[in-house]
Every structure is written in structure tokens, then in C-alpha cells.
Amino acid sequence: MATKNNTLKLKFDSARKYAPAPESKAAAKIDAKYDLFINGKFEKPLSKKYFATTNPANEEKLADVAEANAADVDKAVKAARNAYEKTWKKMPAKERAKYIYRIARVMQERARELAVIETLDGGKPIRESRDFDVPTAANHFFYYAGWADKLAYAFPNRNAHPLGVAGQIIPWNFPLLMAAWKIAPALATGNTVVLKPAETTPLTALKLAQIIQEADLPPGVVNIITGAGATGAAIVNHPDINKIAFTGSTDVGKIIQKAIAGTAKKATLELGGKAANIIFEDAPIDQAVEGVINGIFFNQGHVCCAGSRLYVQESVFKEVYRKLKDRLATLIVGDPLDKNTDIGAINSKQQLDTIHKYLKIGLKEGAEMYEAPCELPKKGFYCRPTIFTNVAQSSRIAQEEIFGPVLTIQTFRTDDEVLEKANNTPYGLSAGVWTDKGSKIFNMTTRLRAGVVWANTFNQFDPTSPFGGYKESGYGREGGLHGLNAYVNLV
Ligand code: NAP
Ligand code: MG
């Protein structure tokens, strides 16, 4: 055992031998204070209140951000309604498309700045913000710009009418990308928007507001207001909102459902997940192990569709477990701005406490815990990638969303057994299947109750493909042609 640990330590040390490769902060222009983006201008909040947003990697304050109250929300909704009635819904679709293209292009021009700010404000590795979040966000604007004047082809023999004003509320795990997921299809279909980013990660949405100004979008078409849960609730409860698009926790999703019950408001809810990643004995094991690592440790496990439950066929369990531990030992946890970093900072102290709470629950439930042998920075919020084995299906760490770099592993013998276990959760957002056999993939994908099922890969996203959940993971689809549907009335 001692030798094994030494081997892991050696591997870890060799991984740490990379020279630091920090991304420059010079590209990130962050103001000391941000107001609310309403009617095309940055306006002081009627609440007169501001709150700080910090960098979770070192706990330093980045900026003060306005806290919108119900009166500010009302002002933003009025601006959106006015822009909808007077400008946006009347504008020829091909003109609307030009604005959306322009936003996408300015995002590309300012990609480096957006990536650095996303990493500073949220704690995710720069490699991810640079190579995934920002380009995928720009691609959503490009993709939906393309649809704007082709709605007749999206909905043949129907007339697609916009809904009106969309209230959009997003979480902290993919701040810019979630804003793009929500704003791009709403604009393409002729709706106007009031969007609220999460309290801990408002900065890229505010940068997007500046980009929207630069793109000359008519005032009021997109309004971006910052605040905490109460601001979100004020958007949900505003009587002049026609649609709520929410991404966040299942608990808040339920509150929203209750709040809009009996109103004419439409809703799409993208909520939590507890994805099963299933490795069959005939799978390419090395590829599968890499996919599991990518599936749960990517973005510190702050991913709604993270493959947080691993099911391994009994005959290959030992091999998979050994390879997983070996790979874990080479992961670099630390400064998110360093290009070598694999796992950055946990988004907030509160989220880190939640993860620690679950680690204790796992141990108390009798599971065996393995933490990667890495050192953590002294300041900031960090968590070692962690694996639990000896996990019972009923255990809380296998049932509840932890939203951190924590993987549970269970074994199985037959297809039916793993299907039953994989589907035995209140969630149904995503799943993964690793096998050499196409027939097995089809058998599993048709019987897994999850909105997205990846085969021999994991966490792949594309603007053209729809995303959304079953059961307590929510309803409605975002992305692709389906994503347009959520913003139109078909007559
Ligand atoms: P959250 O607490 O539900 O917050 C999401 C957003 O809702 C934030 O902007 C939040 O504001 C706001 N909010 C809080 N209380 C509200 C209320 N009563 N009414 C209206 N809005 C309210 O979720 P989170 O912790 O930020 O995000 C993590 C969760 O999001 C996870 O469960 C994850 O699975 C889920 N998620 C799902 C998807 C998906 O596509 N299915 C994608 C990403 C994340 P504050 O942040 O200021 O409190
Ligand atoms: Mg922050």
C-alpha cells in the first residue's frame, strides 16, 4: 500500500513539474462598479444597493455590482415591453439576424477578455473558458442568427409568433454560455429579454451587455440586471413577463413552478442532474476512463449533466478503478488562470461547504473514500478530486446532486441491472454508455430515462443539438431547432 501511494505521489510530482503558464490578466478590463443594463444604458439601481463579486481562487474582490430590487425589475420589464412592441417584433427577421450575428462577432473579437473574466469571477480553468465556454457561447449566437429569417422552415405550414418579454435566470457554472443559450433563441424568434446572472458570477453577463451596446442592438431588447435570489423571484412574479427560462437547482425550479401556476406564463426549466456513466466490459477502457475523468472532474464537477455516478461491469472493475486512480494522480488542481490547471476553484465557500458535507455523509454511510494525493492552494476554495467505492444504491451520495468533483462507483453484472440502477434517481438529465457494440448502445439509449445520452464520449455540446431533462431535471429543451419552440406561439 505504501509503495502504491509513493507511486501515485511520484506521478503527482511529475505532473506538477510543468512550469507555471499563467494567462495574463491584462486582457480583462474590470470596472470597480457595475450598474444595471436597462434600455441600452447602464443605470444606477433604484435600490441604491451594491454587492461584491469575488474571485473564488484567492477570495479577492473583483467589483461591486448593483442589486436590483422589484422596482428595478419593473423598470427593466417596461423597457423590454416597450422595445418589443415598438421595435423588435416589427423588425423584419433578416434585420434581427444581422444584430445577432454582430453580437457573435464582437464576442469572438473579445474572446480572450471574456475567457479571463469568466475564469476570474467563477474559478473555472482558463483552458475551459477559453476553449469551451466562450467559443460555444459565440456559436449559439451564430447558430440562432441563422434561424431568425428561416422560421417558416423550422415550423412548416405554421406561423411562429414571439411570446413577448422573456425573463431569464441563470446559474453560476456556465455564466456566459447560459446567457447565450437563453438570449440567442429569444432574439431570433422576436422576443425581448430581462436576464439575471447568478450572484457569484455576474461579470461576463455585464461584459455581454457592453458587447450588446457595441453591436448597436436597439435599446431595451436585452436588459441585464444583477442581484440575488430575490431579484430572480421579482422577475418570476412580474405580471408583464410572458415566459420564464430558468436554469438552476431543482429546489428553486419547484418554487418557480408554484409561483407561475395559474398564470399564462410559459416556462422552460433546466434543473439538476445525477448522471450515470456506464462502462461495459467490452468498452475501450482507456478511452472510457478519460471520458469519466472529463465527465465529472471537468469544471470541478459544477456541471448539471456531470457523470457523477459511475457503473462498471464487475469483470473490469479492478482495471477501471486502478486506471482511474492513476489518472486522478496526474490531475493538476490549482490556479484557474494557469493553462496547465485541470481542476480550478470551487465557485464559492457555500458550495465548498456543501461538497464537504457530502464527503462526510459518504463516510458516515460506510462508503470508502479515495482523494487524489494533491496539494491545494492555501487561499481560495479548492477540493481534491474524490472517488467513493462500496456505495449503496440508496446512499445519499449516489442519489443527491453534490455539484463537485466527487464520483461514486458501483458495479453491475447485467444490462437490466444497470438500467434499473441508472434510472433509479429522481433526476433524468444525462447519461453515458461505453461499449464496443452498437446494438448495446441502442438498447441502452432507448431505455435510459435521460434527456441526453452520450455513447463512447461525454459532455459534448453543440448549438444544433437540443438539451434538457426528464423527471426532476426539468422540462423544455434548449439548443437546436427544439430551442426555438420554447420561444414561439405556433398558429
Ligand atoms: P440556484 O440556486 O437554483 O440558482 C439559479 C439562479 O436562480 C441564480 O441566478 C439564483 O440567484 C436564482 N434564484 C435563487 N432563488 C431564486 C428564486 N426564489 N426565484 C428565482 N430565482 C432564484 O442554482 P445554482 O446553485 O446557482 O446552480 C446550480 C444548479 O443549477 C444545480 O442544481 C445544477 O444542476 C443546475 N444546472 C442545471 C443546468 C441544466 O441545464 N439542467 C445547467 C446548469 C446548472 P443567486 O445565484 O443570486 O442566488
Ligand atoms: Mg465571483
Provide the low-confidence segments as ranges: none
Number of structurally distinct domains:
2
Helix/strand-derived category reads: alpha/beta
Shape: globular
Largest sheet: 7 strands, mixed
Q: How are the strands of the biggest sheet laid out side by side?
A: 14-15-16-13-12-17-18
Q: What small ligands are held by the chains?
A: NADP nicotinamide-adenine-dinucleotide phosphate, magnesium ion
CATH structural class of the largest domain: Alpha Beta
Average pLDDT works out at 95
The CATH architecture category of the largest domain equals 3-Layer(aba) Sandwich
Tell me the span between the first and last alpha carbons. Answer: 68 Å
Fraction in beta strands: 15-25%
| Tally of helical segments | 17
Instruction: Give the CATH H-level superfamily of the largest domain.
Output: Aldehyde Dehydrogenase, Chain A, domain 1
Number of strands: 20
CATH topology-level fold name of the largest domain: Aldehyde Dehydrogenase, Chain A, domain 1
Helix content: 40-55%
Rg value: 23 Å
Structure notes:
- This protein has two domains: 25-271 and 473-490, Aldehyde Dehydrogenase, Chain A, domain 1 (3-Layer(aba) Sandwich), CATH 3.40.605; 273-455, Aldehyde Dehydrogenase, Chain A, domain 2, CATH 3.40.309.
- It has a seven-stranded mixed β-sheet, sandwiched between helices. It has a six-stranded mixed β-sheet with strand order 9-8-7-10-11-19, with helices on both faces.
- Strand 7, helix 7 and strand 8 form a beta-alpha-beta unit.
- Helix 4 (111-122) crosses helix 5 (126-147).
- 42% of the residues lie in helices and 17% in strands.
- By secondary structure, it is an alpha/beta fold.
- It binds NADP nicotinamide-adenine-dinucleotide phosphate (NAP) and magnesium ion.
- Magnesium ion binds at residues 53-54, 121, 200-201.
